[in-house]
Amino acid sequence: MALSGATTGKIGIVESNLDNALVNQRIAIIRAFDSTTQDYLRYIFTGQILQKLLINAWGAAQPNLSSNALKKLEIPLPPLEEQKRIARKLDKADEIRRKRKKLIRLTDELLRSTFLDMFGDIKANKWELSTVENIIEKRRNSIRTSPFGSKLLHNEFVDEGIAVLGIDNAVQNTFKWAKPRFITEEKYAQLKRFTVYPDDLLV
Fold first, then answer.
1. Is the overall model pTM greater than 0.90, yes or no?
2. 203/201 Cα distance (integer angstroms)
3. Beta carbons within 8 Å of 104's beta carbon, 6+ residues apart
């Protein structure tokens, strides 16, 4: 487990065929007394347990964990058979996640390949080049970055109202509803120039 920096709390499982290796500084080895528990631990150090651990991290710019805080961390420890059952279910979920990630990557590659098949080499075709500015609607706010700083603060979000879209709505190369964020009608009136319309492209 990494004990320092932006990756504090992240884990890696050492491959079984690895020989004659040492750990560097600011990384902890966690070796459980039973192989079942070792598998179970892979999934324990995520989610709420990881957040619980990071509460004990210190440092202003980059978090740091002490091995003592790691040793004293309390975790749920069901009987070995239950640990096996949990680990098996999470193994299946992780396999689905990895397959989905691979499928997304292959889909992206297919899109790039299809583009080249359809349009060929752009330079070889000697197509005219255009800036994005030249192909957008000729009206104000056709390109608009989101409000920053004091224009929209976290404490201005409310439970319902006008939806606010963010990075998490676009990071999968497709639009996805993510963490719900709303502002009041009054706040929307102040930020109306940032309105999103159907078929807009979010970057």
1. no
2. 6
3. 172, 173
